[in-house]
Amino acid sequence: MNAVRDYAFVTTAYWGLTITDGALRMLVLLHFHALGYSPFEIAFLFVFYEASGVLTNLFGGWIAARFGLRITLFSGLALQVLALFMLSYVDETWSREFSVFYVFVCQGVSGIAKDLTKMSSKSAVKTLVPHGSTSMLFKWVALLTGSKNTLKGVGFFLGGLLLMGLGFQYALVAMAIGLLVIFGIVLALLQNPFGKTNVKPAFRKILSKSKSVNLISGARFFLFGGRDVWFVIAAPLFFRDILQWSYAEIGSFMAFWVIAYGIIQAIAPRIVKNSPDGLSTEAVAASHWAYGLAATPLLLAVIVYHFLPVDIAAENIDLATFLLVSGLLVFGALFAINSSLHSYLILALSAEEHIALNVGFYYMANAAGRLVGTLLSGLFYQIGGLSACLISSAALIIIAGLIVRKIDTKSVL
After folding, report:
1. Separation of alpha carbons 256 and 261, rounded Å
2. What are phi and psi of 131, to 5 degrees?
3. Between the CA atoms of 152, 154, 155 and 157, what dihedral angle is there, to the nearest 10 degrees?
4. What is the b/e burial string over 21-34, where b = at least 16 CB atoms within 10 angstroms of the residue's CB?
5. Chain-wide mean pLDDT for the chain?
6. How far is CA 138 from CA 77, 115, 305, 360, in A?
7. What is the reported pLDDT for 401?
């Protein structure tokens, strides 16, 4: 019963930060677009946010392994509150250069907060599940991860709603106060010193992993690179430039995609019927699901190239758009299952005394994949349009499938 109670508190903390994380992205994007900032200037605001995840997960895992997951969990919540209050001081009278730099730094603080909280929450699940209960581990990880992505989509909606109703500054203050309340409740009631072990890993251990941990981390890098190469920049610009969608339509689709993705992620154990008691089964399943996922962007690339050219006639656009949107939703469902399998494998392959280090390293690879995917998304879209991004997505995901197949499932570190 105590494990369930502590899991609920950890999940509540993660949910609170996740909603503010999604809302903050929409607030910054929409507010600075309304102020006339260029797409490149807006994109620059998010670079430090993504890049900070690489170092945060790498060093955060080491800190958690030495001092416990409570430290990193509470630090993440506190930093997010700080970032929200800092952003609320942005003044429209500031010079554009200083505003960009200031928001760049604030976004970096928020990125650190998000990754500290995520790494701590997912690592905590391993310590709260009874040893050997792999079925429960898969279900709890899937529920935590799936609910996170669903609530991030809710955050997208919330950000637009708060911006419209309260304005930029007051919306940020309202979110900061709400998260501060959650922080206080969890700080007072979560007493479990989870994640703190007698093993104090040396600093050099942050890059010293088993072959299996390196492989699942490498697969994660290519999997998320394969998603963000079309998701972050290419798809929204395509919807705007070619399909002539409004900003509201684009935001609604992206939010719905994330919410649906989170729901599928939460029920992944019911879909992957052969789980949960054989790691070898899960590694093979992860590779098979990756190959199935890779087929989706290839088919979508054909649809975009042949049926949605730049000069498409209005009477031919509806069916092609329906096929594209439907295909992207299918991609989201398949991607959710792949992501859940990866999240399960990193925990199952990690001994409890090394869980924070391994999960931190794994999410460092995740953050690096997102960063590279974001950069490639802009580059490939400029060179070859959405179809080029989709083809590169398929290639990256196939590599992820090939890597995860090589995992030695008998190795636990």
Report:
1. 8
2. -60, 130
3. 140
4. bbbbbbbbbbbbee
5. 78
6. 25, 21, 39, 18
7. 93
DSSP annotation string for 315-356: GGHHHHHHHHHHHHHHHHHHHHHHHHHHHHHHHHTS-GGGHH
Angstrom distances, CA of residue 46 to CA of 32, 151, 296, 312, 317: 12, 20, 28, 33, 32
The two three-digit tokens of residue 28, written as one number: 């910054």
Cα dihedral 258, 259, 264, 267, rounded to 10, equals 140
Look up tokens 């399960």; give the residue: 344
- For residue 178, the 8-state DSSP code is H
Per DSSP, the three-state class of 1 is: coil
For the residues of 71-116, what is the DSSP string, one character each?
Answer: HHHHHHHHHHHHHHHHHTT--TTS-HHHHHHHHHHHHHHHHHHHHH
Q: What mean pLDDT do residues 233-241 have?
A: 80
pLDDT band at 9 (very low <50, low <70, confident <90, very high): confident
3-state helix, strand, coil in the chain (%, to 5): 85, 0, 15
Whether residue 171 contacts residue 162, with contact meaning beta carbons closer than 8 Å, is answered with yes
First to last CA, the chain: 28
Nearest Cα residue to 389 out of 401, 376, 402, 403: 376
Query: What's the sign of the alpha-carbon dihedral 202, 208, 212, 216?
Result: positive
CB 163 within 8 A of CB 26: yes
| CA distances to 123, 140, 312, 329 from 10, in Å | 10, 12, 50, 30
Token pair belonging to 284: 């093979």
Is residue 404 a contact partner of residue 287, using CB atoms and an 8 Å limit? Answer: yes
pLDDT higher at 381 or 275: 381
φ/ψ of 405, rounded to 5, equals: -65, -25
Residue listed under structure tokens 């494990």? 3
Provide the pLDDT for residue 290: 93
DSSP label at residue 130: P
Q: For residue 87, give the nearest of 148, 39, 25, 44 by alpha carbon.
A: 25
Instruction: Tell me whether residue 309 is exposed, middle or buried, using C-beta atoms within 10 angstroms of its C-beta: 0 to 12, 13 to 18, 19 or more.
Output: middle
Is-above-0.85 flag for pTM? Answer: no
d(CA 55, CA 394): 27
